[in-house]
């Protein structure tokens, strides 16, 4: 059963009417209702607020990293463990092919259903997850394999065990190593990009976001709790924080916005996966036209021009 958000109720009603007309074999009514649906979809999704986009980024049916990996990769083999402590299921790493290109894909995985969410720790990686990601990235560098990273996390896990195993060092190490990694790298925010948990696999030659994804230093709920001591003001915080893909593109903090289906990636997973694969292959072609030094210089310039200051 499809899950509809509050602002999608009219769309839900029209789709239910279409199903009823199809059961009655009333093709004339189906045709009229489908045109009505197209107009309602355009009207609804062309005028989304930032908070509604946040809801879509967190939609329970939205494709996760493994959904995309299974759709775009073939002959894939999973890479496990960080060779220091353990294997964190909140980050998955695969070696395989996208099209004819041999690639390594790293993704943050939230999990579906209570049992799987617990296994994946709700997409909040421990230090060993980031160290596993770095091991896979260094393998990509060693064998000159391009790297695709899929960001989707509310943030790095803040628990006692994670702190004991040096969560901040693991994230900082990834920032340093990925900034210097000598292979082609592309990172895509597919859902929720939260703080250092997202940055740890977000330093790349190309950083893009799906149309209905978000990227922020803190969750809107956390922001409203700190600023107003009231986590219920998350909508106001969302509108003020500029965390949508369109906002970040205008601020030159990301390279591209990927046009997932207007009705959301969860309504057309195949098309959304196709968009990611095409962007990755196109970016790879562009990056390969540059020398290693040119690519590293461009990466450095991009990182250094983030933000602004005045004297």
Brief synopsis:
The protein is α/β, with parallel strands linked by helices. The protein contains 14 helices and eight strands. Strands 1, 2, 3, 4, 5, 6, 7 and 8 form an eight-stranded mixed sheet that branches.
Describe the structure.
There is one protein chain. This protein has 14 helices and 8 strands. Strands 1, 2, 3, 4, 5, 6, 7 and 8 form an 8-stranded mixed sheet that branches. With 311 residues, the chain is α/β, with parallel strands linked by helices. The chain has 2 domains: 10-47; 53-304, 2-enoyl-CoA Hydratase, Chain A, domain 1. The chain has helices at 9-23, 27-45, 50-57, 65-72, 113-119, 127-142, 160-164, 167-180, 195-199, 220-228, 234-241, 245-250, 269-288, 292-304, and strands at 74-79, 91-98, 101-108, 147-153, 185-194, 206-210, 214-216, 256-258. The longest helix has 20 residues, at 269-288. The chain is 49% helix and 16% strand.
Which descriptors would you attach to this protein?
311 residues, alpha/beta, 2-enoyl-CoA Hydratase, Chain A, domain 1, 2 domains, eight-stranded mixed beta sheet, 14 helices
Rounded radius of gyration (Å): 20 Å
Work out the number of β strands: 8
Please bin the fraction of helical residues: 40-55%
Biggest β-sheet strands, sense, barrel: 8 strands, mixed
Query: Given the structure, what is the number of helices?
Result: 14
Low-confidence stretches: none
* CATH architecture classification of the largest domain: Alpha-Beta Complex
Amino- and carboxy-terminal Cα gap: 56 Å
Instruction: Indicate the structural class.
Output: alpha/beta
CATH superfamily of the largest domain: 2-enoyl-CoA Hydratase, Chain A, domain 1
CATH fold group of the largest domain: 2-enoyl-CoA Hydratase, Chain A, domain 1
Domain module count: 2
Q: Which term fits the overall shape?
A: globular
């Amino acid at each position: 059963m499809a899950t509809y958000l509050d602002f999608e109720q009219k769309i839900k009603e029209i789709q239910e009417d279409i199903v009823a007309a199809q059961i009655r074999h009333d093709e004339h009514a189906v045709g009229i209702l489908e045109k009505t649906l197209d107009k309602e979809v355009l009207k609804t999704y062309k005028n989304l607020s930032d908070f509604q986009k946040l809801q879509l980024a967190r939609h329970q049916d939205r494709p996760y990293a493994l959904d995309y990996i299974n759709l775009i990769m073939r002959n894939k083999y999973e890479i496990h463990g960080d060779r220091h402590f353990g294997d964190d299921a909140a980050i998955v790493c695969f070696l395989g092919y996208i099209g004819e290109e041999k690639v390594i894909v790293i993704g943050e995985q939230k999990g579906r259903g209570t049992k799987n969410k617990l296994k994946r720790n709700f997409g909040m990686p421990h230090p060993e997850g980031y160290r596993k990601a770095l091991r896979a990235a260094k393998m990509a560098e060693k064998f000159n394999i391009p790297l695709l990273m899929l960001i989707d996390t509310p943030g790095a896990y803040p628990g006692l065990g994670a702190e004991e195993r040096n969560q901040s060092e693991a994230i900082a190490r990834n920032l340093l190593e990925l900034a210097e990694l000598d292979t082609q790298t592309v990172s895509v925010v597919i859902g929720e990009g939260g703080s250092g948990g997202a940055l740890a696999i977000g330093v790349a030659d190309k950083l893009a976001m799906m149309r209905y994804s978000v990227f922020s230093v803190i969750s809107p709920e956390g922001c409203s709790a700190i600023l107003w001591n009231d986590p219920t003001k998350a909508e106001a915080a969302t509108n003020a924080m500029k965390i949508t893909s369109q906002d970040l593109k205008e601020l030159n903090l990301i390279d591209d916005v990927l046009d997932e289906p207007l009705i959301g990636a969860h309504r057309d997973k195949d098309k959304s996966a196709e968009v990611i694969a095409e962007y990755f292959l196109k970016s790879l072609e562009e990056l390969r036209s540059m020398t290693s030094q040119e690519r590293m210089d461009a990466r450095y310039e991009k990182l250094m021009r983030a933000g602004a200051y005045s004297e």
